[in-house]
Amino acid sequence: MESTKQSALKSDLYQLQGQLDEIQGFVQRVSNTLAAQCVLIPDQQVRFVSSGSENAMFSFVELLTECDYLSSRPFKTSIEIDANDMRREVWDMVQHERRGEEMQRVIDAKNAQIERLIKERDEIRRLKDVEIDQLSQLYVSTKMELFQWVKMKGGDHGATIVAEREDVAG
Predict the structure, then answer these.
(1) Helix 156-169 and helix 86-154, axial crossing angle in degrees, nearest 10
(2) Do 124 and 70 fall into the same domain?
(3) 14 is a domain residue
(4) d(CA 112, CA 104)
(5) Spatial contact of 65 and 71, defined as CB atoms under 8 Å apart
(6) Which residue, 62, 81, 100, sits at the end of a domain?
(7) 71 to each of 12, 20, 64, 66, 131, how far by Cα in Å?
(8) Domain, as residue range, for 157
């Protein structure tokens, strides 16, 4: 907020300074023209030199035109920036704080959601590990049962077939 005020004031200052520079340049040209066209007589009267009266008349017309232009230009006489806009600045700060609080609530909700998803993922992993252990135990018990069944049915020849199938499958 303060930087906006400062930049607006600087802009106004640069505009006024430009206008003052133009007026100063005009005053300098008037002074130079008068010095070239006039002579100061000891009794403090100004007398125009008669030589080059056409040039003197032309430069006075130019000076009058420029004087009209400079005097008709509007310039700022007041400052449009309220230096005491504390209410608006406080309101802006309150709104900024509210947006910050809203963002914090959103962040907290997202963090809670992430934590819940992480716990859910860990629980799913744990359940899969339990399921894998159960399947491994079932596999081992099935293998043992099959081994015993083969022994009962045919002796060593059946065990060799089961061992070969395990090597191919495993």
Answers:
(1) 160
(2) no
(3) yes
(4) 12
(5) no
(6) 81
(7) 19, 12, 10, 8, 95
(8) 90-169
Last residue of a domain, one of 38, 60, 81: 81
Q: What is the dihedral of CA 152, 158, 163, 169, to 10 degrees?
A: -100
Gap between the Cα atoms of 29 and 145, Å rounded: 119
Tokens of 165: 């199938």
Q: Which amino acid is at 75?
A: F
Is residue 1 domain-resident?
no
**Which residues have CB under 8 Å from 75's CB, separation 6+?**
15, 16, 19
Question: Which pTM was predicted?
Answer: 0.38
d(CA 94, CA 35): 64
Amino acid at 144: M
Q: 5 near 82, Cβ under 8 Å?
A: no
In tens, the pLDDT along 43-78 reads 544 445 544 555 555 566 777 788 888 888 877 777
